[in-house]
Structure formats: structure tokens, C-alpha cells
């Protein structure tokens, strides 16, 4: 793969809106991605393997629980810092960002928000340091966009719960020590349970043959009469709103992350357009290529403004789920379109692993699907503005 010469576009001087702490956190993540992710990621994507050696580095840049309080091992940062870290990681690879998002927003967040003090103290510091990795089990083979229909269930057996069912498409599942699993009790109410690797009847077979997020490990979670200790139930929130609250946090991170992927594609195409000579001139001198670049930087700039504002609203605890849906949908769509255009600008070279664009393009096919598909987020916006529910 080519050396990582990335220079971040900032067309509207958005750095002026960031604090010194934001820039410090962002720049540390950017440097780490250049040094430890870019040189190896293409190989791992080709091998369809998650590079476990970067787990320490992810922990060191604060990617595991950026906004979790320091007393639990988190970095105690604000939401914009969290977003910037996700942006920089996804600039390297969406699969690596997925691992960090799951750990922070889908495992640490529910333990912090819905768990008790014992659970926080037991799990959060180990998850923040990367000593333990986690996964989040919501999707099932027959329930994806409609997780409320889930059939995974648990029964109260007096001194423990008995968990049965299966989850599918679970990021980090094959190597995670801890799974936050959403299941229905005997009354049909959804609760979160912490399931640990090694519990009898719990297995995590890996999902193979993915053309997307190849450097992220995906698997199933199978529960065959798993005895879960009663103290592993998350006591402070139940119902579908509990997993959806985690998804708000993760989707916010994805909205920032997608900008990272788009910036990398744009920056690569811009550099290539000045170096590649056809018909005696750099291809960047042709109007058609300039149109592509001009539209890319316009869309990136709009997305940067959207997420920065959303970050301010999140910091003030005022962002709605629908606002987060809009940003996730817009930014991932923006990134996937930029990846497609940028790939074309590189001609044949665009399809090789010499450049990151094709990998980003394929990765974004997962990102536009998980955490609520493109169409589902549109329906959420539609419901928000009309007050009419298209899901029923
Ligand atoms: C690589 C990868 C990693 C993932 N990681 C995780 C994870 O860690 N944890 C987890 O729980 N899940 C995870 N997922 C699952 C992901 O969230 C689901 O794939 C996603 O929610 C869509 O569900 P589905 O695949 O079952 O598609 P379906 O729900 O079957 O949707 C199929 C199509 O129908 C459309 N559709 C569905 N309902 C409607 C409707 N009411 N109106 C209009 N159109 C509709 C959808 O938009 C989509 O286009 C992951 C998925 C992938 C691909």
C-alpha cells in the first residue's frame, strides 16, 4: 500500500470551532492511525482478519469509552472529542472504527448507564484498557430492522437466569470476552444481560465470506441453555428504549466516522488528480474531474458542520434520536458516494489495494446497513416531521 500522506480537508476553517483539547485528542488519534493502522490495514483486510495488536493503541488514544468518566477508566472527554476520535479511526478503516464503536457505545455505555455500581467497577476499567473486548447482541436471524420482534429469551430459575436464542451479525463476537445481550423475559420485556465467554452453552462462531468490513471480526452469538448469574442483569433500564439508547450513541460516532472515510477518499483522489497525466496534463485540470472534487469537498464540509452542531447538542444533552438518525444517514450516504466517485478518478488503480478507496467503498456498504439502514433512518426522519408512523 502507498505511504499514508493524508492531509485533512478543512474548507470552512472548522478547526476554529474546536477547543485545544479537541485538537489535541484528534491529532493524537490521527498520528496513531498514520503510524499503526495505515501500514498494516490493507493486509488485514485482504486476509479478512482483525489486527488484535492495535487494541492497546486504541485504548491509548482513548477510543474505548472516550466519554466514560475517568473513575471507571474512561477518558472523561466530551461528545465532540468522541466524534473526532471516531472520524480519525474511520479515516484509517471503518472496521477498526466499528470495533471501537461497539466497545464504547454498545458495551461500555449500557454498563455505565443501565448497570449498577458493582457492574461498572467490574467491567468498565477492563474494557477501557482493552484487557477485555466486548460485543453487543441485538440483531437476530429473523429480526434486523425490527429488533423488538426478537425471540432470544431468558427464564428466571430462582438462583440464575436461563438464556436461549441466537444473535447474528455481531461485531467483535469471535474474540470478545463480554457480550451485552438483549433478550426478553417471561413477560416479553426486553432486558440487557452481560454474558461472559466460558459460560456453558455460549458459543460465538465466526461469519466468513464478507466483502465488506473485512478487517473487523463478525460472528454469531448462540445461547443454548446458558446459566447467567442474576447479578449480570442490567437493572436500571429495560424495554426497547434501552438498546436504542446505546444505538443513539453509536450512530452519533458513525456520523463522524463516515466523514473520516470520505476525507481519506477525497484527499487521495485530489493528490492523484494532480499527479496523473493524461492527454499531456494532470487529470485534475479537466473540468469533469474538478466537478467531482468540488462536489466532494462541498459535501464533506456540509457533513462536518452537521456533526459539529450535533456534537454541541449532545454535549448539552439536547440532541434527539431523530437528529442523530439524520446525521448518520446523510453522512454515510455522502461518504459512499464520494468513495464511488473517488474510485473512478483513480481509474484502474482505484480498484487495487495500493490505495484505500476501494476498501472504504466496500466497508461503507456495511456502515450504510448497520445501526439502522439508510431507509430506516429516512423513515425515522419522516415520522419525526409528520408525526405519522410508517412502521405500523
Ligand atoms: C458487518 C456488520 C456488522 C454488524 N454488527 C452488529 C452488531 O455488532 N450487533 C448487532 O446487533 N447487529 C449488528 N449488525 C446487524 C445490522 O444492524 C443489521 O444488518 C441491520 O439492522 C439490518 O437488518 P437486516 O440485515 O436483518 O436487514 P432487514 O431488516 O431484513 O432489511 C432488509 C431491507 O428491508 C428494508 N426494510 C426493513 N424494514 C423496512 C420498513 N419498515 N420499511 C421500508 N424498508 C424496510 C431495510 O431498509 C433493508 O433495505 C451488523 C451488520 C453487519 C452487516
From TrEMBL:
EC number(s) on file: 1.3.8.6
Cofactor dependence: FAD
GO molecular function, one term: flavin adenine dinucleotide binding
Enzyme class: oxidoreductase
Ranges for domain Acyl-CoA dehydrogenase/oxidase N-terminal: 19-131
Catalysed reactions, semicolon-separated: glutaryl-CoA + oxidized [electron-transfer flavoprotein] + 2 H(+) = (2E)-butenoyl-CoA + reduced [electron-transfer flavoprotein] + CO2
Keywords: FAD, Flavoprotein, Oxidoreductase, Transit peptide
Tagged with keyword S-adenosyl-L-methionine: no
Record protein name field: glutaryl-CoA dehydrogenase (ETF)
Domain (Acyl-CoA oxidase/dehydrogenase middle) ranges: 135-226
Entry similarity comment: Belongs to the acyl-CoA dehydrogenase family.
Source organism, top-level taxon: Bacteria
Pathway assignment: Amino-acid metabolism; lysine degradation; Amino-acid metabolism; tryptophan metabolism
Positions of the Acyl-CoA dehydrogenase/oxidase C-terminal domain: 238-383
Keyword Repressor attributed: no
GO biological process terms, semicolon-separated: fatty acid beta-oxidation using acyl-CoA dehydrogenase; fatty-acyl-CoA biosynthetic process
Alphabetized InterPro entries for the sequence: Acyl-CoA_DH_CS, Acyl-CoA_Oxase/DH_mid-dom, Acyl-CoA_Oxase/DH_mid-dom_sf, AcylCo_DH-like_C, AcylCo_DH/oxidase_C, AcylCoA_DH/ox_N, AcylCoA_DH/ox_N_sf, AcylCoA_DH/oxidase_NM_dom_sf
